[in-house]
From TrEMBL:
<dbReference type="InterPro" id="IPR050679">
    <property type="entry name" value="Bact_HTH_transcr_reg"/>
</dbReference>
<dbReference type="InterPro" id="IPR036390">
    <property type="entry name" value="WH_DNA-bd_sf"/>
</dbReference>
<dbReference type="InterPro" id="IPR028978">
    <property type="entry name" value="Chorismate_lyase_/UTRA_dom_sf"/>
</dbReference>
<keyword id="KW-0804">Transcription</keyword>
<dbReference type="GO" id="GO:0045892">
    <property type="term" value="P:negative regulation of DNA-templated transcription"/>
</dbReference>
<protein>
    <submittedName>
        <fullName>GntR family transcriptional regulator</fullName>
    </submittedName>
</protein>
<dbReference type="GO" id="GO:0003677">
    <property type="term" value="F:DNA binding"/>
</dbReference>
<feature type="domain" description="HTH gntR-type">
    <location>
        <begin position="23"/>
        <end position="88"/>
    </location>
</feature>
<dbReference type="InterPro" id="IPR000524">
    <property type="entry name" value="Tscrpt_reg_HTH_GntR"/>
</dbReference>
<keyword id="KW-0238">DNA-binding</keyword>
<dbReference type="GO" id="GO:0003700">
    <property type="term" value="F:DNA-binding transcription factor activity"/>
</dbReference>
<dbReference type="InterPro" id="IPR036388">
    <property type="entry name" value="WH-like_DNA-bd_sf"/>
</dbReference>
<keyword id="KW-0805">Transcription regulation</keyword>
<dbReference type="Pfam" id="PF07702">
    <property type="entry name" value="UTRA"/>
</dbReference>
<dbReference type="Pfam" id="PF00392">
    <property type="entry name" value="GntR"/>
</dbReference>
<dbReference type="InterPro" id="IPR011663">
    <property type="entry name" value="UTRA"/>
</dbReference>
Length: 255
């Protein structure tokens, strides 16, 4: 979807109507439900499927397809046995800012739940990416990401133990890893990132609390210190229905 300034979504061309003019019935219902969502506002509870199907004069299967699209787009979210209108997506900047900074900037309370913090021997592929010898000890830190207590992602980080030997004793897993590194004189000077869309594994979906069919945004990052040495490898899954990424682009200095 195209976006205007300040992250405001632009409507799809011709409101999604194909060139031949024939619109699937579920899509018409979806547009009607979207009007209801705007009226209810974030947190508003949606009527039951039976009530909505009767309201719009469609079969339950048609209604479910419309609701499924709205769930995948992040307009709706499950709450208990019901469905409520979701708030705006969390905008995470593509920068060296930490998750804490990105979420706090939007007035949300960041949080993390520790899944694992252990040592493991560097396999050849990991060793190459971190510029360490195969077999060197690495920290593996895995945490569920939260925003206002809602589970929104899963982060897995690898760092050389030699660079941060006190991680298991002095680091608060609920806090910012970047703040911990900065306090110990380890500053991030740059990073390479790659983003792709994936489906979560059954384990990941269980930890994040989402259906396995929900699309995820997968971010791979390798960060470097101010001497150009790799410092961390991060694999982060973000819920596709709750996150969008932003990037400020500058014009090139030469044409």
């Amino acid at each position: 979807m195209n976006h205007g300034t300040h992250g405001t979504p632009l409507a799809p061309a011709r409101s999604g109507v194909p060139e031949h003019g024939r619109v699937p019935k579920y899509y018409l219902v979806k547009a009607q439900v979207e009007e209801l969502l705007d009226a209810l506002g974030p947190g508003g509870r949606l009527p039951t499927e039976a009530a909505l199907a009767e309201r719009y004069g469609v079969a339950r299967a048609t209604l479910r397809q419309a609701l499924r699209d709205l769930l995948l787009e992040g307009r709706l979210r499950r709450q208990g046995r019901g469905t409520v209108v979701a708030g705006a997506k969390i905008e995470q900047p593509l920068s060296l800012a930490s998750y804490t900074e990105g979420v706090t900037r939007q007035g949300l309370r960041p949080g993390r739940t520790l899944i694992a913090l252990d040592r493991q021997s560097a396999e050849p592929a990991l060793a190459e990416r971190l510029a360490v010898a195969p077999g060197e000890m690495l920290w593996h830190l895995e945490r569920v990401l939260r925003a206002d207590e809602e589970r929104v992602g899963l982060e897995s980080t690898y760092l050389p133990v030699a660079r941060v030997p006190d991680l298991d004793r002095e680091f608060d897993p609920a806090g910012s890893l970047y703040a911990h590194l900065h306090a110990r004189g380890l500053r991030l000077a740059g990073a390479e990132e790659r983003i792709e869309t994936v489906l979560a594994t059954p384990r990941e979906a269980l930890l994040i609390g989402t259906p396995p069919a929900l699309p995820m945004l997968l971010l791979h990052r390798r960060s470097r210190d101010d001497a150009g040495r790799p410092l961390e490898l991060v694999r982060t899954l973000y819920r596709g229905d709750r996150f969008s990424f932003t990037l400020d682009l500058a014009a090139p200095t030469t044409v």
